Amino acid sequence: MEELKDVADLFKTSIVEHFGRALLNSLCNLNSLDDYQNLDISLVYNLLRNVCKNVTPPKRGWGYEPSADDVSLGADIERIRSMWNRYCDGGTEFLYLGGIYDRMVDRYGNISDLVKFEDTGRKKILSFELNPECQIEDGLVLTKAIKSVLEILEREHIVVVIGALGTGKSTCLKYIESHYRRNQWTVSRKEKSITHLDLNVDGKKKLFCCDNLFGVFNRGNFAETDEIIKVLENIEQKVNHELKVVFVIHDHVYEELQEIHPIRVFQNKRVVVDFNELSDAEMLLILNDQREHGHCANDPKCWFRNVDFELVKNTLQENPGKLGNPILTLLYSNRHDIFTKREATRNIVRELCTIFQKMLEDTPDLFNVLLYVMFVKTHSLDKNVEEWASELGGLDSITVKKNVSQLGAFLFVEADGSRIEIKHELLSFALFKCCASSTKYVFLLLKHCRFEMIEEIIRPVSTPNHGEFCVILRKEMYDRFSSRILEDDLFERLKEHPLLKEKSFFRYKLYSMSTDNDRKIRVVKK
């Protein structure tokens, strides 16, 4: 019955078109075996024809009288339709009825005592091809949003893809790139920024894609922000029939930019595609695929296999919109413990922080390996870990390799046999936030984590409208953070960062340390 309810979501528009909303509701409201008799016979036939995987089409196809030698289930279903329709026209003799009955008994046993024959007013059984709301191509659910990107690129030269973290924007970008490569276009891709040089085509048809424009977690690349904006403001003068451009930008980054500079190309609604909205059919297909490849794939008795889509939809209603539903269902499909607490959907970052804290307490090696991978972004399994990794509980290459499979089972990392990286930026952010709240780990975070990530996430306490994806710089972090900036010679790079653009205690601290450092250097030189 739950499968039939799923069918109602997947074929909703087509069912309503051919049978009306009342029959769709009868399908959605199935609660017991007795409810099957309320289904319209034409609807039942067309579900058997279009949906049931174990019913193969007759040799001559649906809607035609089957050949005498075709005794498949699909052929018998088609014969029953044909006989009934002839009966509606006054026919009384049916050549193959006895053979059909015998084959049905062989297939399903003697069910004649359970069948109630009702003359329905001799209403004929019609045959239709039902079309699903969306399709799967090469393992990817082709959502309406993905199709919109392709359609816009046919008539326009620029597309802006906007959505919350985890809505499938990067997945869409990979599909678009693959599509254009198949059509003999040169594809170029960058992360976070764009320059005038990126728009050169050199006489070739070129697709340029920029994922996570202005940064993943917040408005990163501060030193480059003004330059990126200049390129975006003049981009319409650069594009032509040989160049198409796709920008992917997170909602929270877009909102922050709007406060600073409402970029013209982002205001053109004709080229903006919002990835935040998914139909029930799209969400169901995505969930089914995630469930098929998630934890349940290795555990046939897992309770999550029997969780129906309606319950998942009700849980997702708690989502405040800061994260995409696809990333939430991906987590649910691999960490079912999150799903047992409906309120967790309201603040999944906090829930992940709790999971990471428990991992630190119960399996510190596992936590330290995960933290190391976040610090370096990508680790080659055939190389030794960085020397400083020993500061993470004495971490070494053997410990990393030993724990990779366990982390992969939890969905936390992706390993291809030669390298390992965290599966999704949401996990990286939650781990960053977990460390930032720990007295022990915050100093290791500021000392060893990729500075690009620190730069994007950390904000001064005076930041207006603290975003969902930032961490506030606390006083106890000043010394270690200032030392990192000076040690890595990052002072010039941070001039445009909000941390240094205001008169704050941190700015005063950094300038003081910088002055002391210069004084020490001069003394050494003398």
TrEMBL record:
Domain Novel STAND NTPase: start-end pairs: 141-289
InterPro entries: HEPN_DZIP3, nSTAND3, P-loop_NTPase
Source taxon at top rank: Eukaryota
SUPFAM superfamilies according to UniProt: P-loop containing nucleoside triphosphate hydrolases
Residue span(s) of domain DZIP3-like HEPN: 33-86
Protein name according to UniProt: DZIP3-like HEPN domain-containing protein
Lineage, opening ranks: Eukaryota, Metazoa, Spiralia, Lophotrochozoa, Mollusca
